[in-house]
Amino acid sequence: MSVIMTPVFVSLVRYADLPSTLDPGASWGDLRFLVPELGDAIHGQELYDLPTLDRLTNAHSGSHNWGRSTMPLTLGSVHGYLKREVSTYRKNRLAAYVLAGRYTTKCVQEFVVLRWLRAHRVNCPRPLALWTRRRGSQIQAALFLEALRGYRPLTTYLEQAAIDGRLSPPWTAQLMDSLAQFAVRLHNALVHNPDLFAWHVFVRSVELPKPEDFAVIDLQRALILAWRPCCVRRARDLAALLATISDSLIDRRQRQRFLERYMELARPRDPWRPLFPRVLRRRIAHWRARSKVRRALAQQEEVLARAAIPPTGLPSNNPAAGTEVRT
Prior knowledge:
The chain starts with a helix and ends in a 21-residue tail after the last helix. The chain is α+β, with helices and mostly antiparallel strands. It has helices at 2-11, 39-45, 50-57, 93-98, 106-119, 154-163, 169-188, 231-243, 252-266, 276-288, 291-306; strands at residues 31-34, 63-65, 68-75, 78-88, 127-135, 138-146, 151-153, 191-192, 201-204, 214-216, 223-224. Helix 7 runs parallel beside helix 9. Strands 1-5-6-4-3-2 form a six-stranded antiparallel sheet.
């Protein structure tokens, strides 16, 4: 049976359960996984089930989106973020029927991907505790993640660099080279993340980041593939990243450098390379037509305008900016 479930876990992790090889650190109530250093804090407050966890976090404020919420939480001496899922139903009825009892929540999906990435030495938050509860087709879950200390979102980092006057062509070229290497590490780990937005990529607060100074968060839609991502999946990930960075921060030349460096490291002999720019342009245009991306780009432009920094790139309404890759 374990032989049959292994490829299901690898290729359809969204509909998979916890891997059978996982040895949970706790088995009380809804608590499925716990790191040893949180044992005293969990046992002291008896956070064994989701209702008790909800009562603890009712006083905290956080972001809410379609039955999911994220809020800061401190347990003992550990500061992190709690992701809570309420009333998650089986969306794909066919997959739920074929894989009866194997459907899982986004919290479990993110938990599995985070552990996978950390095993492959890709920086990301460390999962500390996991709670799950099932009632028929309704599923609830909560995931506690350790906070990334000393990191900032890539968009915030670039805005501050522009304000400080560090956004020179040589500095930006080295930054984008390191970012390309980080994207290659993510894909070489067989992970496809369609939500690889610039605000989900974090950077360590250093003068000039290296590839190991980048981290990725919010992997609830990421998938562990059976093989390295194809051209379309790579373009979808990179398009989400490039589309959410203002052209006033990263111009056409630096985007071109990023893509050339990525292709050189990831797929130097890719037969689909001539088609990659076209697929990437279409994906960037798709993302920049979304309202949340337009709002994010407008906020970046507003920050630069308040700092009285003239734009150095292309107009932000050009979705195809920087998508050419020389072959």
